[in-house]
Structure formats: structure tokens, C-alpha cells
Design brief:
Elements: H1 12-24, E1 28-32, E2 37-42, H2 46-56, E3 66-67, H3 83-92, E4 97-102, E5 117-121, H4 127-135, E6 139-143, H5 160-165, E7 166-169, E8 181-186, E9 189-194, H6 200-207
Parallel strand pairs: 1-7, 3-5, 4-8
Antiparallel strand pairs: 1-2, 2-6, 3-6, 4-5, 8-9
Amino acid sequence: MVASAAGSAEPVGPLLDRAVEALRRGGFVVAPTETLVGLLADALHREALRRLAVLKQRPPDQPFPLLLPSVAALDRVARATSPAARRLIAAFWPGPLTLLLPAFPGLPPEVVGPGELIAVRVPGPCIAADICRRSGGPLVATSANRRGGAPPAEAGEVDAAIAAEAALIVPGRAAGGLPSTIVACDESGYRIVRPGAVEEAAIRGALR
């Protein structure tokens, strides 16, 4: 189902409510994030995550990253944060910085990676962030393409396999450019796992 986020007769509020209801039922929502067009799912809905892994052809050793509605919501999914992580959170959230942090026990295996870590961020301004806040999160957010494919420039341009499984597609263009930077943080400092939208010089500056 395709809906319009702007310029249509449907107000944004009801559209967000439809997205939240679809996610709560275990459905998938396609919507722009602040970097790429994303495929969203309820991060605590285990059956939805199993179906998402099949749809995305995602190997078990590549867990899905999480979006949070706020910094305060981090306490629901992560056991602790190091001093470096807290400084990076203060400097870059909301925004395109994903942190690898120790996961709470009991989270779905599709979101927990090696070392019992989760990848998590509070997104910057975008429709996916609005949906996450409306839902209360956490949400899984993965690029809206199957393994080996390129994320579409527009949410309405997802390939047929993704579109067929999506409960709701919110058209719109993501800002594009680099994906979020992924950083692992612990008591010894930080390590960039994937370069991205936040440059290392900015990360070093925030940790001085």
C-alpha cells in the first residue's frame, strides 16, 4: 500500500498512525531515513524479524540495526554505555551515527551481533524518525533492498519483492549520500566499523 507523506489529502498524523499500526501487527513500512530509504519493522516482534531476514536474504551474522525514538530509550535495549559512547551520543544524536553497544539479554537474535552487541542510533529529522517517535520504538531500520541490490533513491521505487511484502510505503526521497557511520565503543575507546556520514575527525573532536 502506497501513501503520501506530503502534498496529499491525508494529514501526516493519521499517516504516522497507519504506519505505527502496521508495525505493531508485524508489518513492514518503507520510508526515507535521514540517509537512505529504509525498511522498518518492530524490533521486538520476533516473527516480523524472522520474515524480514528472509526477505532481505540477511545472513545470521549480520544483525539488523535499531532506531530509537530518543536517547532516553537507549536504556530499554543496552546494558551500559562507556564514557566514549556517552560523549558521542551527546555530540551526534539525533543523527547518522550508529553505535555498537552491549545488548540487554533477551532481545531477538536478529538484532544482536557477535559479542552480544546491538547497533543503535537516534535518527535525525526524517519520516522514519517521526514514525519511530510515534511508535515509541525501538524499530529495525535496514536499507529497502534485497541483498546485493542498491537502495532506491525514492521510497516509491523499491523493487517488486520489497513492495509486495510492505504493509505501507511512504513516498519520499532520502537525503542520500553516505550511510550512518558505525562506531564500536567500550572502556578502551572507540573503533570505526564502517565509515559514513559522520567523519572520523568529528568523532575525534567530540572525544577530546
